[in-house]
């Protein structure tokens, strides 16, 4: 049993989403979250969750998209809230929300505003989506690119520990800081943990308490070793991420598999 907590089946190009999902659901205990990036894909994910009982949807506006919503932040938040209220049975979290300083230069040129302004807009949008999650009692998914300290500061300011750190790429020192402030938050491990050169992330996966770990594919992107460069990622490859974590840790394989699966069910309130 596997819970791929982060996938975009509707973005796959090599296979149809039906084939991908049927392949994954051969094990009927498997679960999958279909992740939105904007208002349109939020609707797509809800439809997918309605069609497949093992698929759960998220809603949210991604930081590299949020600049398109500057003039209508309040309106788009209201739309997200309305989507949730009408489809609460199918929605398990708000995401992807994050700060992304990796693209700050190109975003500042594209929208003809300063880099500081881009950062400020992303921060405002992040805070407002955290506040919406608090109001709706939903977990949030945080993606961080080159912005870990700013994200931690906002999480502490907002006092919201019901989050998972998507694509965890920081070192053990930052993981300790997160867990010191928010002992029940989750760190999300993805294909990079299968890569030989990522020892700092493997150290985190080997060291933090098992109760704080969940796994994801981010498919169709980010194919794990050994399929990297050969085929599109898909939810069944979650097994590769899990195997790597089993190799890295001391607990028995059964305990790791069951605990990570249960962590995901509990975090997203999925039965
Ligand atoms: Zn993603």
List the helices and strands and how they pair.
Blueprint: E1 3-7, H1 17-24, E2 31-34, H2 39-51, E3 55-59, H3 63-66, H4 73-87, E4 91-100, H5 104-111, H6 115-136, E5 140-145, H7 148-158, E6 163-166, H8 172-181, E7 186-189, H9 199-207, E8 213-215, H10 238-248, H11 253-268
Parallel strand pairs: 1-2, 2-3, 3-4, 4-5, 5-6, 6-7, 7-8
The structure holds zinc ion.
Notes on the structure:
The chain has 271 residues and is α/β, with parallel strands linked by helices. It has a single domain (3-268), classed as Metal-dependent hydrolases (TIM Barrel), CATH 3.20.20.140. Helices cover 47% and strands 15% of the residues. It is built from eleven helices and eight strands. It has helices at residues 17-24, 39-51, 63-66, 73-87, 104-111, 115-136, 148-158, 172-181, 199-207, 238-248, 253-268; strands at residues 3-7, 31-34, 55-59, 91-100, 140-145, 163-166, 186-189, 213-215. The protein has an eight-stranded parallel beta sheet with strand order 1-2-3-4-5-6-7-8, sandwiched between helices. The mean pLDDT is 86. Zinc ion (ZN) binds at residues 6, 8, 35, 96, 218.
Question: Which key terms come to mind for this protein?
Answer:
271 residues; alpha/beta; TIM Barrel; 8-stranded parallel sheet; globular; binds zinc ion
- The CATH class, by name, is Alpha Beta
Quickly count the helices. 11
Hey, roughly how much beta strand do the residues contain? Answer: 15-25%
Task: Please give the number of β-strands.
Answer: 8
In short:
The chain is an alpha/beta fold. It is 47% helix and 15% strand. The chain has one domain: Alpha-Beta Barrel (TIM Barrel), CATH 3.20.20.
